[in-house]
Amino acid sequence: MEEILIVEDERDIREILSFNLERAGYRTVEASTAEEGLEKLTQSTSLILLDVMLPGMSGFEMASTIREADSHVPIIFLTARSSEEDVLNGFKSGGDDYIAKPFSRAELLARVKAVLKRTSPPMPTKYECGPLVIDIESSTATLDGKVILFSRKEFDILAFLIRNQGSYFSRSDLIRELWVDAPYVIDRTIDVHIAHIRTKLGPYKDLLVSRNGFGYTLIPG
Ligand code: CA
Question: Lower CB density within 10 Å: C or N end of the chain?
């Protein structure tokens, strides 16, 4: 889950930001000053929403400090002032985008999403597990070089497991990750998909391991 650090001295705004971002599926960390923000900035911070006018160190100063420390964490400035000069200062000090207050929830989420997309390193598209190769981009799976046709959901399950190789996922983990829009899916559905996947893996069916009490994982044979 992507973690967003919110640096904003006005509590109401901070709470609204946090509420909306958490509802949209992000984890948030709050700071009321730039100094506190710098302390709470970690490797797991995916993005900073940074107010410009803060008591003590300003948002622009905090951004410069972060860039001087050679961090490329994306920064979106929040400001009540929307003059051209502020925008230019914001980008000079290392900001990736700019939101003028007051802003709508839709605008906030759209900008956060766009900046995260633009700045996140491209995900690899090909994954291997022994003879099984999954290419996410082209939605193809090959086994020993031969194309195997998996249904959409079978493919999604395999792609998820191969991306997280070595970790176990229970049926409910898989439902939560892969059936976001259909929470009524039952465990039995997963069992059926898993059985189909095993059949299609044929002699390599043991790549897909099921461990009692842990769940499913892919292990190269
Ligand atoms: Ca402020």
Answer: N
